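Hi there, hope your week has been kind to you so far. Thanks so much in advance, here it is.
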Amino acid sequence: MRRRFGSVRARATLGATLVVAVALLAAGTAVLLSLRSNLTGQAGGQAERSARAVAAQVAVGAPYEDLSAMDDDDRPVQILDARGSRVAASEELERIGVSGADEDSGEDLDPGEIGDETDFADGFATVDGDTADYRFAAVQVRSPEKGPLTVQAGAPLAAEQSAVRTALTVLLVGFPLLLAVVAGVTWLVTRRALRPVEGIRREMAAITASADLARRVPEPDAHDEVARLARTTNETLAALETSVERQRRFVADASHELRSPIASLRTQLEVGAAHPELLDVAGAVEDTVRLQNLAADLLLLARLDAGERPADGTVELTALARAAAAGRPDVTVVVEAAVEVEAGETAGAGAVVEVAGSRGQLGRVLANLLDNAQRHARSAVAVTVRREGEWAVVEVADDGDGVPEADRERVFERFVRLDDARSRDDGGAGLGLAIARDVTVRHGGTLTLRRTPAGGALFELRLPVH
């Protein structure tokens, strides 16, 4: 039972049934009260008409035995004097009992005058041995001969009570049936609405069991929340599949890239062990450095993939660019003369362009861009630093052959080397530009590649100004 009511369908059915039950209870109570009030009002009106008819005859001095308005057997009437004693009554009327009767209005009437106010009360009357409930109306009148009198007339409440009992019976019988219908319809509608969700759950369970991320959950042919859930789930699966596939390629490519320097280093050490005089110490050191740099690149990419945020700090790009270019004789750093600092101001070669982030990571970006540019340049590399509004811009341009437009995004993929740069002696492992793009994105910037007017490659680094 606990498990059953733990389902969405059971909770929805129970909730809908409870809401309808409360609504029906409130509506039924209102109907019964309204019906009772209306019927009681009608009985009160009948009693008032009878009382005023008798009072009209009393007001003109008619004798009690000639009061024709007291002949109605269904409406008992009695006349009380100022002391409350009965002085006249309908035939066969034995007793009247009034509960909660209003006090005497105390109207000061002239002889032959009837009071404007009518007092109503519920009570009972015994007529010819039968006792029943009545609605009573009391009217004040002043007889020319007998002084102030009170005329009480009653109208039976049997019809009102019968109607209320009938309505109550109908409600007691109909409410459970209506609630059963509501519960059944809600159960079926919810079951149909949640059927696609169950299909999604089963498919996700199968995907989890098989670890086959190429599978997709069924998408309902609709435009509701369930269909959007299915589409979002498939988009998540596609992204997860891409991420896992990328991770697999990364591991495979990393293993491949590591194999080469490790194998070369092992060969040289084995040769050196057998023939010390043939040991290529410089080559062993070079392979070790390559291996060390590759391991550092892989570690940095792993930290970036894990969502590592850049360290909080302020980096001055002009100084950073000059530091990265130090020791590179063919690299020229230029700070454009029209660097925007504040509205209406410009700065020259000594302008300060600051961004927020990690100095080490941004320095790595510039170093990788310069390494790539020097690798492909014919004679010179130019670095330009400027500010454009809220952006700090660093451009690294070379005078080489450039990159074909079709490959300008591929160069930022990991372990990608274009055909003319696949030599491991001249090129790297294909991670430099990928690291540069990932670090830039982590700093809220962009890194793009286009062609210089002379045909070389121009990398544009944009970062938000601090």
